[in-house]
Amino acid sequence: MSAEGPARRARPLFVARETYRRRRLRDAARALPVLGLLLWMVPLLWPLNTEAVSASGALVFLFTVWAGLVIVAGALVSAMNATDRGAAVPDPLADEDDEP
């Protein structure tokens, strides 16, 4: 065994629950535009020869998708703000050399 063996086992196998939740919320926020793009492409898959779906129906679908994306994005931002309130956020403008 190498000398690094015990040091490597000292790291926790799982991250803290809040850290994990923050990462998953960021992942969801990154995936939301892709989901929106895929949903906006759905009307392109509808058959053009049949009269089952009208243009107004497609516009209602697109507006509903847009409104749903706005609501989900707002919920994600609210959830991310709630998890970030408990975490210590470092000030990016603070200079490390300027300690009081």
Topology:
Layout: H1 5-9, H2 17-40, H3 42-45, H4 55-86
Helix pairs in contact: 2-4
What do you see in this structure?
The protein is mainly alpha-helical and 100 residues long. The protein has a domain at 58-85. The chain is 65% helix and 0% strand. The protein contains four helices and no strands. The protein has helices spanning 5-9, 17-40, 42-45, 55-86. Helix 2 (17-40) runs antiparallel to helix 4. The radius of gyration is 23 Å and the shape is elongated. 0% of the residues are buried. The mean pLDDT is 77. The chain crosses the membrane at residues 28-46, 58-77. Keywords: Membrane, Transmembrane, Transmembrane helix.
Structural class: mainly alpha
Give me the count of strands: 0
As a percent range, the share of helical residues equals: 55-70%
Number of helices: 4
The radius of gyration over CA amounts to 23 Å
Along the chain, the helix and strand elements come as HHHH
Q: Which whole number gives the mean pLDDT?
A: 77
Point out poorly predicted stretches: none
Major pleated sheet: none
Keywords: Membrane, Transmembrane, Transmembrane helix
Transmembrane segments: 28-46, 58-77
Compact summary:
The protein is an all-alpha fold and 100 residues long.
Essential attributes:
single chain; 100 residues; mainly alpha; elongated
